[in-house]
Amino acid sequence: MVQFRRHRRLRRTAGIRNMVRETHLHKEDLIYPIFVKEGENIQNEIPSMPGVYQWSLDLVDREVEEVVGLGIPSIIVFGIPSEKDDVGSCAYDTEGIVQRAIRQIKGNHPELTVIADTCLCQFTDHGHCGVIEDGYVQNDETLVLLAKTAVSQAEAGADIIAPSNMMDGFVAAIRQGLDEAGFEDIPVMSYAVKYASSFYGPFRDAAHSSPKFGDRKTYQMDPANRLEALREAESDIEEGADFLIVKPALSYLDIIRDVKDRYPLPVVAYNVSGEYSMVKAAALQGWVDERSIVLEKLVSMKRAGADLILTYFAKDVARWLEEK
Ligand code: PBG
CB of 302 within 8 A of CB of 280? Predict the structure, then answer.
């Protein structure tokens, strides 16, 4: 008989399969996004994201307590202000929705790691991530406002600053702003590699942050590009980033692997809103098995090199891991 290898020996029993499994998901890997909204008595389910809610501050503790109870170590906070203007003033207001949310959540749950998303698009009336002049997003003017936003979030008690705006030099500007304000120990989790993706659609419903004109292609990356991702990651590291986010996750597993292989920083996969909604929609139809699909997707992100996963499925995954 011809010689061949019997790979199936290591698949014969569940016990052996467990022994040789190379990649594991842990609760410690998870970061859960929370949307906070100005107002009272609000728990609005986001129509395109079943199971995900906008919360007013008087109710948000319910959500936070659930997250903490499930053993999820970290959340990222997104804010929906009641007022917007052309320079996103509410993003860096000490009494802004994000700042108040962070103060409240850290006050009640000091052990929970709270990450602040640092961007202007939820706070500008035109919906872009920076200041506009002549129809174009102005890089350097925007940096000043981003640094102010980051400092106000750190003052409110944020443990990590996560800038998602994709201006050039945003890590340097924020690092300098934090250092000058005495926050040299607060890390920057940079959305280093962020593509101009159609997978953000449901998030923009959730956060009311769609651009009112044009798109984000002059600052977010072209999905066709790989080397550009390495340039982005490299400059963020030079500027002082402590974590690197790749976003979205699933269509960009190759990029996660590239970044992980080249740079010695923790890599975060952002499993974005569209990736969530597509699974939810199919699961609600009974077309896929939600639990096994989600666990397969998340383990593939870790296999690709992600150390952490930012996901709207975090609570479900924490529950499923408990049941196992
Ligand atoms: C803000 C921001 C976006 C997301 C996170 N921060 C949207 C965007 O760039 O329009 C998307 C997250 C998701 O889709 O889950 N800049």
Answer: no
In this structure, what DSSP letter does residue 219 have?
Answer: T
194 is catalytic: yes
Ligand 1: distance of its center to the CA of 197 in Å?
9
Q: Which of 31, 115, 118, 200 to mutate to test the pocket of ligand 1 (most atoms within 8 A of CB)?
A: 200
- Mean per-residue pLDDT over the chain, rounded: 96
Residue 114: exposure state from Cβ atoms within 10 A (0-12, 13-18, ≥19): buried
Instruction: Decide if 247 is catalytic.
Output: yes
Q: Would you place residue 209 in the very low, low, confident or very high pLDDT band (cuts 50, 70, 90)? A: confident
Residue in 34, 120, 164 to alter for ligand 1 test, most ligand atoms within 8 A of Cβ: 164
Which ligand 1 atom minimizes the distance to the CA of 200?
A: 14
Handedness of CA 178, 76, 145, 188 (dihedral sign): positive
- Per the residue annotation, which of 37, 148, 247, 260 is the catalytic one? 247
Of 308, 321, 249, 267, the residue nearest 75 (C-alpha):
308
Report how far residue 200's alpha carbon sits from residue 208's, in angstroms, rounded to the nearest whole number.
12
Asked if residue 62 lies in contact with residue 108, where contact means CB atoms within 8 angstroms, the answer is no
Domains of the chain: 26-323 (3.20.20.70)
Mean pLDDT of 292-316: 98
Confidence (pLDDT) at 202? 95
* Burial classification of residue 3, based on how many CB atoms lie within 10 Å of its CB (0-12 exposed, 13-18 middle, 19 or more buried): exposed
Whether a cis peptide bond, with omega within 30° of 0, leads into 73 is: no
pLDDT of residue 299 exceeding 80, the answer is yes
